[in-house]
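Need the bound structure for zinc ion, inputs here:
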Amino acid sequence: MDVLIGGVSQPVTITRKRMKNINLRISKDGMIQISCPHYASEAEIKRLIYMNEAWILEQQLRRKQENEINREGVNGPVLYWLGEKKYVRYLPAKRDSLTVDGDILTFYLKEETDERIEQTFRKVAAKEILRLAEERRGAWDALICHAHGLPLPEITMRYMTSRWGVCYPRKAKITLSTRLIHYPVECMEYVLLHEYAHFLVQNHSPAFYAVIAQYMPDYKERRKRLK
Ligand SMILES: [Zn+2]
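Answer from helper R.:
Posting the output first, comments after.
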């Protein structure tokens, strides 16, 4: 049996067994496979397949990407980008850069050296975290700085291993760790609020955490993910 999926005619492998439901799966090489009871009609099978067209195309794209990585022999490390698992590959290029597309994180490198990989990663990670922080700072600028007559801080990025963020109240400055890129954005949001809250309370007393809890009731869960 053939079906028209994504505008392309694709074969379907049907296995009939003693079972109740019709099951649809995509094999490792992206083929549509059905297992179903002996009495299931072709019309029923086709209906199930067409209802799941978007899912099938997504699975096939994923299998294709996985197979490409394996074929090119660049199944490098797995990296977490904003809390999502990414497969890393390295491609030669004139300039060092990095892109994230679906499950794939691609390094474009002049030369594949550890130093270039690290520098490129930190640069792009810093840019992305800063962009996300700038997008989210408005509430804290208003509720914490404006409301208390404090200057708006400058946010900068640095690669730090022992801290997620640093606050310099006298300089009106907040520094975030580029390593936040590995965690879901909710974690960076917590660190950002944490540093803003230090403009009001400089220690880690209950009064300090009361400020955070007021604006972010689920802060403990976010903080736990960073440990
Ligand atoms: Zn602190």
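Comments: The chain has a mean pLDDT of 92. The pocket of zinc ion is lined by residues 194, 198, 204 (CB under 6 Å).
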